[in-house]
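[job 4471] stage=fold_predict status=RUNNING
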Amino acid sequence: MQSNDARTLLQCAVPTAVAGVVAVVVGSVLAGGKGGIGAAVGVVLAAGVMATGLVILNRTAKHLPHLFQMMGLVLYLTQILLVAVFLVVFKNTTLFSTKAFAFSLLAATLTWIAAQTRAYMKAKILYVDPESGEAQKSAPAGSPS
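[job 4471] inference complete, writing structure tokens
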């Protein structure tokens, strides 16, 4: 994993973890122990799915750049399906509060997306390597080399 990828992952994980702590506290206060457990499960599910997606997408961009856009769409669909399968499996559970789970899942996902958007907007990543020979070959005639 490149340093900017690790930095993006960290900039997404930290705010999501903070939102998770808040969700667990709120879930515990409003719905007791089962609310806290439900909130924790929701945050872990959201962060796990989003982090795995980010890592897979970064590896795809590095090794198979021509599949990047298609992989992003497939990955998005897979993330939704994984969460849907989890929801179906635990639909009638009594292990945790499903309302606390749902709200914390939503909060963690929105926090992750906002943090990832911010991280990408703040990143100073070159999309062209100015030192490569290919960049100099394709420079317009008359431009300084």
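[job 4471] summary: Residues 3-63 form the longest helix (61 residues).
[job 4471] exit 0
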